[in-house]
What we know:
Elements: E1 5-8, E2 15-16, H1 18-31, H2 39-45, H3 50-56, H4 64-79, E3 85-86, H5 90-99, E4 104-111, H6 112-121, E5 130-134, H7 143-149, E6 155-159, H8 162-171, E7 174-178, H9 185-189, E8 195-196, H10 204-207
Parallel strand pairs: 1-4, 1-6, 4-5, 6-7, 7-8
Antiparallel strand pairs: 2-3
Amino acid sequence: MPAPLIVWDFNGTLLDDVRACLDALNSFLRARALPTLSREDYRRRFGFPVADFYRGLGMTFGDPFDWESLGESFHMRYLFSPHLALQPGAREAVAGLRARGVRQGVLSALEQGLLEVQLGQFGLLGAMDFVCGSRNYEGASKEAAARALNLQGPVLLIGDTLHDAEVARAQGWRCLLCSAGHQTPERLRAAGFPVIDALTRLDLDALLA
């Protein structure tokens, strides 16, 4: 069997941005006199589509423009957070796969331009064979984008949410979930795919077998 093509999720998987996302979210909740979330509350509740997650916290949107405007405001706060860093082991995993000649790319709900900028800032853009983000800031499903990629041969998706598991299952891909990101290990184990607690746990030999 050929080595699988590796498809990385970005936010929460390669990038440790939970604190940055939580800080931006809590600023919106405080402005609306709604209860704020702790890190573990957030990880127990976060999900896709992101608009549904926000509604579950008591936030309301008068029309689609309200949601789009909120998304843009969120990302402006997020971008200036001092709490953005690669997950431990991310750089080593990407470099190790590249050294072995394994094809890899990114499939993300993050807006395409911002995704490319952040990958470049953290030195990962040049290692990717493709980068597939969103056309907007809505944080919606990645399933249509995954279908459009039309990837051939064995594929392994590495992500940090149940939505990554849904995308992988819909495409017939293998999946590995990492609980260092936006959802708890208890939630991720329910998907039925292997779960690791950090990218430092990746065994590239086993991954490519």
